[in-house]
Amino acid sequence: MNFLRKYLNNVKPNFEPEGKLHAFRSLFDGFETFLFVPNQTSKTGVNIHDAIDSKRIMSFVVIALLPALLFGMYNVGFQNYKAAGALADASFFSMFLYGALQVLPKIIVSYVVGLGIEFAWAQWKGEEIQEGFLVSGIIIPLIIPIGCPLWALAIAVAFAVVIGKEIFGGTGMNIFNVALITRAFLFFSYPTKMSGDAVWVANDTIFGLGNTLPDTFTCATPLGEIAQGVASNASLADMVFGFIPGSIGETSVIAIAIGAVILLWTGIASWRTMFSVFVGGAVTAYIFEALGMTHIAWYEHLVLGGFCFGAVFMATDPVTSARTQCGQYWYGAIIGVVAVIVRVMNPGYPEGMMLAILFMNMFAPLIDYCVVQKNISKRMKRLTNK
Amino acid sequence: MANVIKLRKGLNINLKGKAARQKFSSGKCAQYALVPDDFVGMTPKVVVREGDTVKVGDALFVNKKQTDVKFASPVSGVVSAVVRGDRRKVLRVVVDADKEQQYVDFGQKQVASLDGDAVVKALLDAGLFGYINQLPYAVSTTPDQKPRAIFVSALRDMPLAGDFEFELEGNERDFQTGLSALAKVAKTYLGIGAQQTSAALTGAKDVEVTVFDGACPAGNVGVQVNNIAPVNKGEVVWTVDPTAVIFFGRLFNTGKVDLRRLVAVAGSEINEPAYTEALVGQPISSLVEGKLAKTEHVRLINGNPLTGRKCTTADYVGGHTSEITAIPEGDDVDEMLGWILPRTNDFSVSRSYFSWLFGKKKEYSLDARVKGGERHMIMSGEYDKVLPMDIYGEYLIKAIIAGDIDRMEQLGIYEVAPEDFALAEFVDSSKLELQHIVRQGLDMLRKENA
């Protein structure tokens, strides 16, 4: 690998302030630190550092998302073939390939638009590129329906990165989860592309794969059906394995559970948040079930829709969630409660996870404030009791 | 039976090159130097001139704000240089040592018959008082405010730190005398580790002994203060290095200033790491001569790798230096795609690496690379895991970065020293310079409250 290092050292002066390619400094820096661990040594403070850095953390979140992504690709194909009644003739491979070809453009658009803005912003501010969007960029395609058009996605990503993150100061300073802002933007600006009965199944062919479905074809998600008062015919096994229509990455509880294990084992996600989202959701759903206000069992609320995906990958975003340990219990539990309340009590929105998390993103600083204030009060009391 | 305080938070970093319990000789040197920067927060006023003759115990410089706080020369001889840096800042006062050392006689004293003021006066006269630090601000203290309590931590548990129990061997009587003297000034607490068994520690008289059972930073005196009785606004507590207690004891027992101490010379770049007896102010070159495994791409540290300062062989053993360590600098290492490789030779508390797999016995040779770019604070709870204090570290750091003085006070900045954040700085995935940030916050408040 020496030749690569030598080559980078050779071209590096071009990207320095006086160099002719200075306008691409952030890009070069990003590429260089991607290839090689920076060998800059500490100047003050500790002389040794833990090997962990934000690149490693973000990469592991992306790895944790891969099972959901891969299953999502397969499920896109599966739903298309199922809708066309062609399941019997379709091979696993052709369904997966079809789904991959449908999903890939969304991933590319999300990354190109998002990272493009990040690079330009880093160049403008003279900062290093921050890795936050590596995760947001892959989450975004997973939380939208396959029928969401690419142009709308591009606009939403640009909005979320600029208004949701960069104007606050970049990764680590944002108040709302960037991926959820993208989704909320799409949800409220282009409701027909994000919800309803016509967006959950891919309806055209790619490179001869897949089936063209008639324009009149509709297929609601199980949650959508329940919101309309129709009993869903999806079995519990389908819900857990994920063979149901829904946003690309949210359907399979098992794929998400693999991701959850990776996140919890590496300690990247807070188990307190994740655990309490499920507890909050389960308790609330159980109460509604007991009161006869919801048609489905309490555990079905947890496995349907974006509940699992939100609990595992979005509620645990360390930047926008509560930071104190005690606060994380409250933060998570209220997300679970609010998500189920929106589902059951609001006839307009079949799914409440996005709104619940965004809502609690807003209140996370308040929860932390109360927890920290307790510590402060204790200190003040000590002072007055002296 | 002493009180036992169990600390669940913390982290022991197992580094290669721990000093063996053996002593090697580092010999006598021609020149010694006292460095004012070793006494944090003190502005020096030099009271000698080049060519002056000094004895051991004569003041070389004093605290400009409180001139009765003197700093004694570790050797007798002729002052050969007062080295100044930018804006005439005093960097060090160099003394050419006599062959036969001459001591100022301060007179032996029976500590039992002294009162607190007499102890303070004796320490001031002998130029040893400045070795006492204080909380708040974690600076060298002054005698104008009576301390609420005095804390001594005999546990050095930072990676590669010199073992105080080994240093204590042969100095038990002086240590006890020093403790008894401090106890005359204010209630004195001695913090020891659960593994420390020396009778001079467990059975120390006139002080309250507390056993701290836990991983690093259980030995940090700031952590111990916080767990015994936190510092409130307006109070002062003294924190004393255990070696300084021995210095104090020697003064009362012999009437002389004797700044000999045991220094561990350790680290993965040191051949046969061991201890040596050195004087405060001794050139570091004499300690590491012939012991460095390499001469290039090596980082020499005055202190341990977590709290010590980067130094060179031209520097001197500091007033609070209990170890000199050498680790690889790492500036010649090109590690490809490190963010995704297993990196089994690197240590991490994160289980996204494999350190957890190798157990606690594996020794690591860590270099001085930061291993990542500085980011905003992203992950939460990282600091809390290694900060066994009743403090919200992240919030305190944010308040300091924001320069919000009221908030810093509320969040307990008076209770912390930069070294308490050393482990948090080590584990921080955002690579913030926490010790530097805390120091800035402390300086800001000290200026504000002056």
Report the sheet with the most strands of chain A, covering strand number, pairing sense and barrel closure: none
The number of distinct helices of chain A, counting runs of at least 4 residues, comes to: 16
Helix count from the secondary structure assignment of chain B: 11
Compressed to H and E, one letter per element, the order of chain A equals HHHHHHHHHHHHHHHH
Calculate the terminal CA-CA distance of chain A, rounded to whole Å: 64 Å
Helices and strands in order:
The complex is a heterodimer of chains A (386) and B (450).
Chain A: H1 2-15, H2 25-35, H3 54-83, H4 92-125, H5 132-142, H6 150-165, H7 178-189, H8 191-194, H9 222-227, H10 236-241, H11 253-265, H12 271-291, H13 298-303, H14 307-314, H15 325-345, H16 353-384
Helix pairs in contact in A: 3-4, 3-5, 3-11, 4-5, 4-6, 5-7, 6-7, 7-16, 11-14, 12-14, 12-15, 15-16
Chain B: E1 3-6, E2 23-24, E3 31-34, E4 44-46, E5 53-54, E6 59-63, E7 66-72, E8 77-84, E9 90-97, H1 116-125, E10 132-135, E11 139-140, E12 149-153, H2 164-168, H3 172-185, E13 187-193, H4 199-202, E14 208-213, H5 221-228, E15 237-240, H6 242-254, E16 260-266, E17 274-279, H7 284-288, E18 298-302, E19 309-311, E20 323-328, H8 393-402, H9 405-410, H10 422-427, H11 434-449
Parallel strand pairs in B: 1-14, 2-17, 12-13, 12-15, 13-14, 16-20
Antiparallel strand pairs in B: 3-9, 4-6, 5-8, 6-7, 8-9, 10-11, 10-15, 16-17, 18-19, 18-20
Structure overview:
Chain A: Its EC number is 7.2.1.1. The complex is a heterodimer of chains A (about 375) and B (about 450). Chain A is mainly α. Chain A is about 65% helix and about 0% strand. Chain A has 16 helices and no strands. The model of chain A has no long low-confidence stretch (mean pLDDT about 90). Chain B has about 450 residues and is an alpha/beta fold. In chain B, about 20% of the residues lie in helices and about 20% in strands. Chain B folds into two domains: about 5-255, no CATH class; about 370-450, no CATH class. Chain B starts with a strand and ends with a helix. The chains are: A mainly alpha (about 375), B alpha/beta (about 450).
